[in-house]
């Protein structure tokens, strides 16, 4: 008879009991400022990832020495307490997981905990709201109207217009966000909910134009559950993959619904920090009129990357046809009987090849380096299904929980979690991948086999989510040539092996430079160098050089230039991380003490 079933044998502990005992031990140790006792609750190879709550930073602590150093520096300031389960734990006594509520002296937090044999393997702590500066929502929402009849009362619309007319002229914003795409819009919504006077600067004429202005066939490659904006989710009948114009319209309506101070047709021409006044001087041109803004905080929200990267090939100036970067490709038209060469082999290259083939062109893709391809259906099932899908929602995994679950795996151990996903993808779609290699397409699954998400985090490029264009390559309807470009001639492209590709159109689907380049032009090269590299986390893989950082460089957290912030990423990242950035800025506006633990070093110039 098994030991657990013998009379008088102790009943196995439930995961709730294991988690509760651990939380009680941590709570007691931290309140007693007994760092030694706190460390005893962690495995030797443990990870504590903190979003603002303890470090006023986005920081991953790896192992007990890192955790000790952080607690030595921060514990007295943070004053954590009240660690309790938010709901029932899952797993078993040997491997339990739990959602946790806790508080600090200044904030309320939410955490995710993984225990192995009663000790912590991973801990994610996040700041969720500042005490005394909560969003006015739910039971705390504003009344909206004074139930008192007086002459001269202003309507809601009149008050709104008056605020908009004043901010930036009679009254200075506390924060200016340069960039009014999805990132700037979502962040501004959070700022407004926190009562931070903010202006968004956008050069396009309408919110959403950064999507509308792309090639007409563009759709989101990520599914709807992954792409919600803060506070306002897409309707339940929203398509899984929305078109770029539909997203553009949603962003425009969202901007109005959230009552954002959104300055469209406005270009930021220069920004400089006024040391004496401790504020930024931001020069903009709004509908042809020069305006000077003086915010205390400046956020650059200009996407995942910087300027279009258009390589300079010998002879390009002699080309007799049309040539442009993928960012300028409008799509559509009639290319019947014309020859097109698309240089590049990632998402935009595939989409543009498909667009050109649909409009009658004879298309050749030039692949200069290997590319990871994940079929959309496989990606949704294997990589996203447990977090972002109807299946996930049915299992109680909300968008907010999904964001935190994904964040709960530090980047050091994320590859080990992702590799089996892409091994199964390679097995499941083996025939598909074999057909691609048979036509000369150079495939990879990342340098360590960890696939798409790690490539995105490390370099922001190098992959295609297949929504149909791969079949064009397999069928030979779009030709693929591998190799480097030797030169461009008046009538086409010549590869390094001497292959000549006739062309009436050349599209450079060659990606973008670092977002750091915006800082060099809009502020100064010196400030860009002081901030250092943006994106990547030091994995020492192609296009993500070391040293190891463990978090995306300079994203959503304090940089080495005081009062200057970088916000960006895909829709998922813009939604999730905007919360932490908004809280950091709100705390500074209210004069709270915000001791930042270990700013990252500036290892790379612009």
From TrEMBL:
Listed Pfam families: Pyr_redox_3
Keywords of the record: Oxidoreductase
Q: What superkingdom heads the lineage?
A: Bacteria
What Gene3D superfamilies would the database entry show? 3.10.450.50, FAD/NAD(P)-binding domain
Q: Name one GO molecular function term.
A: flavin adenine dinucleotide binding
Would you tell me the protein name for this molecule? Answer: NAD(P)/FAD-dependent oxidoreductase
């Amino acid at each position: 008879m098994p030991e657990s079933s013998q009379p008088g044998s102790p009943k196995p502990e439930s995961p709730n009991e294991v988690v509760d005992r651990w939380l009680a031990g941590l709570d007691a140790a931290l309140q007693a400022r007994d760092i030694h006792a706190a460390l005893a609750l962690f495995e030797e190879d443990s990870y504590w990832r903190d979003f603002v709550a303890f470090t006023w930073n986005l920081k991953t602590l790896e192992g007990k020495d890192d955790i000790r150093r952080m607690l030595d520096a921060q514990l007295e300031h943070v004053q954590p307490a009240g660690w309790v389960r938010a709901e029932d734990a899952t797993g078993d006594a040997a491997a339990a997981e739990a959602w946790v509520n806790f508080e600090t002296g200044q904030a309320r937090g939410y955490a995710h905990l993984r225990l192995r044999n009663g000790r912590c393997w991973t801990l994610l702590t996040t700041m969720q709201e500042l005490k005394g500066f909560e969003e006015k929502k739910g039971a705390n929402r504003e009344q909206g109207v004074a139930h008192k009849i007086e002459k001269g009362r202003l309507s809601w619309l009149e008050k709104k217009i008056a605020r908009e007319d004043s901010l930036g002229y009679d009254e200075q914003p506390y924060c200016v966000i340069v960039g009014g795409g999805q990132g700037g819009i979502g962040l501004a919504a959070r700022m407004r909910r926190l009562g931070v006077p903010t202006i968004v600067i956008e050069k396009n004429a309408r919110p959403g134009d950064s999507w509308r202005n792309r090639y007409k066939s563009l759709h989101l490659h990520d599914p709807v559950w992954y792409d919600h904006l803060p506070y306002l989710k897409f309707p339940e009948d929203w398509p899984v993959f929305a078109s770029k114009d539909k997203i553009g319209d949603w962003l425009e309506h969202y901007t109005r619904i959230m009552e954002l101070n959104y300055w469209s047709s406005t270009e930021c021409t220069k920004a400089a920090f006024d040391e004496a006044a401790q504020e930024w001087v931001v020069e903009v041109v709004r509908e042809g009129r020069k305006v000077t803004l003086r915010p205390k905080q400046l956020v650059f929200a200009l996407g995942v990357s910087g300027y279009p990267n258009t390589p300079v090939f010998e002879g390009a100036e002699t080309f007799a046809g049309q040539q442009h970067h993928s960012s300028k490709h409008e799509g559509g038209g009639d290319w019947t009987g014309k020859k097109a060469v698309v240089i590049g082999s990632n998402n935009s290259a595939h989409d543009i090849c498909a667009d050109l083939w649909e409009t009658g062109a004879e298309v050749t893709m030039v692949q200069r380096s290997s590319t990871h391809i994940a079929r959309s259906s496989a990606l949704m099932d294997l990589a996203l299904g447990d977090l972002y899908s109807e299946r996930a929602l049915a299992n109680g995994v909300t968008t907010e929980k999904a964001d935190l679950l994904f964040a709960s795996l530090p980047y050091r151990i994320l590859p080990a979690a992702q590799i089996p996903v892409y091994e199964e993808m390679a097995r499941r779609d083996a025939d598909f991948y074999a057909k691609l290699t048979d036509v000369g397409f150079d495939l990879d699954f990342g340098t360590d086999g960890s696939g798409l998400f790690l490539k995105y985090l490390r370099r922001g490029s190098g992959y295609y989510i297949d929504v149909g264009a791969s079949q064009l390559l397999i069928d030979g309807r779009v030709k693929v040539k591998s190799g480097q470009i030797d030169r461009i001639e008046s009538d086409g492209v010549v590869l390094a092996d001497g292959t000549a590709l006739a062309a009436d159109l050349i599209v450079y689907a060659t990606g973008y430079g670092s977002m750091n380049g915006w800082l060099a032009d809009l502020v100064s090269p010196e400030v860009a160098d002081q901030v250092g590299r943006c994106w990547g986390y030091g994995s020492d893989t192609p296009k993500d050089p070391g040293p190891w950082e463990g978090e995306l460089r300079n994203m959503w957290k304090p940089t080495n230039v005081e009062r200057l912030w970088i916000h960006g990423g895909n829709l998922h990242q813009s939604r999730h991380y905007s919360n932490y950035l908004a809280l950091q800025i709100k705390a500074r506006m209210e004069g709270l003490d915000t001791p930042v633990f270990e700013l990252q070093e500036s290892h790379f110039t612009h």
